[in-house]
Amino acid sequence: xxxxxxxxxxxxxxxxxxxxxxxxxxxxxxxxxxxxxxxxxxxxxxxxxxxxxxxxxxxxxxxxxxxxxxxxxxxxxxxxxxxxxxxxxxxxxxxxxxxxxxxxxxxxxxxxxxxxxxxxxxxxxxxxxxxxxxxxxxxxxxxxxxxxxxxxxx
Length: 154
Description:
154 residues; mainly alpha; elongated
């Protein structure tokens, strides 16, 4: 994918990532920590986690196309490097959501999940969600610096 309606696809797709990854991370953490939220939100959260996981490599591929189109400027190297790592952060987020879905299904069948398992799921969700949100910030910050350094005076 190279362009959408004449604009570089990466420029448009990255906005979805910037919004959906932190949203998904927050929902995964919320579902892990609050059983009432899990009961209501786990399915939309799981769908978002799958969407984010599928959208990430598409966004990275569009970014690589865009970087080649720009002539591979070195100022984008750090942004591209961090962007290529993004999949390593959204996959654990999706796995966390899947584990919460399994806990939800198990609970729905009348098989309570033990406190230790719930605690481990919460720790995993917090770690995965926090890491995914942080990496999203790092990638976006490096991209913004690559685009705007020298354009806007401080």
